[in-house]
UniProtKB/TrEMBL annotation:
Natural source organism: Pristionchus pacificus
Gene3D superfamilies in the record: Acid Proteases
GO molecular function: aspartic-type endopeptidase activity
Gene (name only): WBGene00276798
Keyword presence, Hydrolase: yes
Family, similarity comment: Belongs to the DDI1 family.
Example of a GO biological process term: proteolysis
InterPro entries: Aspartic_peptidase_AS, Peptidase_A2_cat, Peptidase_aspartic_DDI1-type, Peptidase_aspartic_dom_sf
Protein name: Peptidase A2 domain-containing protein
PROSITE patterns attached to this UniProt entry: ASP_PROT_RETROV, ASP_PROTEASE
Taxonomic superkingdom: Eukaryota
Keyword Flavoprotein: no
Amino acid sequence: MRLVIEVEKNTYPIECAHESPIALLLAGLPINNWPDFGTIVACKNLEWRLSKADLSLFTLQTIGAEDGDLISFEKTNYEETHFELPPLGDRMNNLIRSIVVTRNPQEKLLETLKAAKCRDDFVKLKNDKIYMAHTTFAAPAILRYVLSHPDDLGGFMLVYQKWAAQQHHKMQSLDERLEYTMTHTPELLTPPSTLYIRGLINGHEVAAMIDTGAQTTVMHSSLAQKLGLMEFIDHRMGIAAVMGVGGKTRPLGKVFGIDYQLCLGSIAVSAIILPSDGTMSNHFILGLDVMLCHGCVIDLPNRRLTFSGHHEPILSVEECNKIDKAKHGSLH
């Protein structure tokens, strides 16, 4: 069969047998340093998360590949949680050991339902490609056992029972952690509001977002235009691209000596001017450079910033918007 393999945006046409292990496809390609801990394999709108060992166990037939298909490989940092198989014997012994005997009628019904679901899952994991692909993410050890022992229903039930018990214990632990957080630190369940201070630049009221993760202070060009700062952009600095949440952005330049007038004084600010992209067109982000220069102290319990001994109230974005609506419309 003929296939097209895509790895790291490069494509390679290959010919191979339907029963070929997936590891064989990677072995014949000019790629280096493929990870030992995980690979996302995509074929026919399905994704399979496979360990290094799985790449040898899974074949093109397993993932449903056909002649002419495109198969893509992507590295992943996923590292599978260790799962130890229970002691297993031959198929008959495994089947006998997998039967749970109980005299309680309710428990007997429950065990019957569990066994029926286990049998159905065993069949689906051998025939349903969508279910198989999902299981490589949810329970890879289960699928791995089915592929290695396709006729051992008893062994599968033993593995399934141990995996289910492990998952039950894990969910109990997660519930306990969530309950503790809800009781003792419920504030951690909701993301905090972004922090702002307000001041004046050239007579315009401007909210500055406090961002201790930003090395430099930045302003978008549409806001700089409103504040009359565009003519003061210095293009001589050779500023490198700025890395943000949306990726790298090439600055227009930098404006020095901006007078940012606060409630109890003013501070000198220099800001990199970024081109507006329509989503953050009016943002003014106060970075670490200005905070360190003016000895800024962030006092969260009292919701204030201190610049050179002067206290400035910290506002939430909701408080900023209320002020904007009461005046002349939001600048951000």
